[in-house]
């Protein structure tokens, strides 16, 4: 893999991974304008995800851990699975029946995150990743 391709993958991994992780901190800690765990739990309960607090913690941890692993390029297949499962749950609960576009609370963002996670994992994380350092 070339240096330029690896730099491109690094940029994608950092921005997508840290954005995803930040969504987790919104749920868990209320950072970046998020609601925090209690309000997130209430929202999850209202969507049928019970028990709400447990599901909110799992969702927040999935976003945080999956995003950080992805940004670091560490255990890429695992990070893609965590991200994909977390986003599929969001699609089938929070965004079900609302169409594709984000402006109507659809699944646009979620689909993009899934495709980026799977696509980068299939390509490989690049030279500037923990996986490359450990497994090459």
UniProtKB/TrEMBL annotation:
InterPro entries assigned to the protein according to its UniProt record, in alphabetical order: DoxX (IPR032808), DoxX-like_oxidoreductase (IPR051907)
Keywords noted in UniProt: Cell membrane, Membrane, Transmembrane, Transmembrane helix
Keyword Oxidoreductase: no
Localization of this protein: Cell membrane
Keyword Ribonucleoprotein: no
Membrane-crossing segments per the record: 68-97, 109-130
Membrane topology: Multi-pass membrane protein
Similarity annotation: Belongs to the DoxX family.
Full protein name: Oxidoreductase
């Amino acid at each position: 893999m070339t240096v330029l391709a690896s730099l491109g993958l690094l940029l994608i991994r950092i921005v997508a991974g840290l954005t995803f992780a930040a969504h987790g901190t919104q749920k868990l800690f209320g950072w970046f304008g998020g609601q925090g765990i209690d309000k997130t739990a209430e929202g999850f309960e209202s969507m049928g995800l019970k028990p709400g607090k447990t599901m909110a913690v799992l969702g927040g941890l999935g976003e945080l851990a999956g995003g950080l692993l992805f940004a670091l390029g560490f255990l890429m297949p695992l990070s893609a699975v965590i991200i994909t499962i977390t986003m599929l749950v969001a699609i089938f609960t929070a965004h079900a029946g609302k169409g594709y576009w984000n402006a109507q609370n659809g699944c646009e963002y979620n689909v993009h995150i899934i495709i980026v996670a799977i696509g980068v994992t299939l390509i490989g994380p690049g030279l500037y990743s923990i996986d490359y350092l450990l497994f090459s």
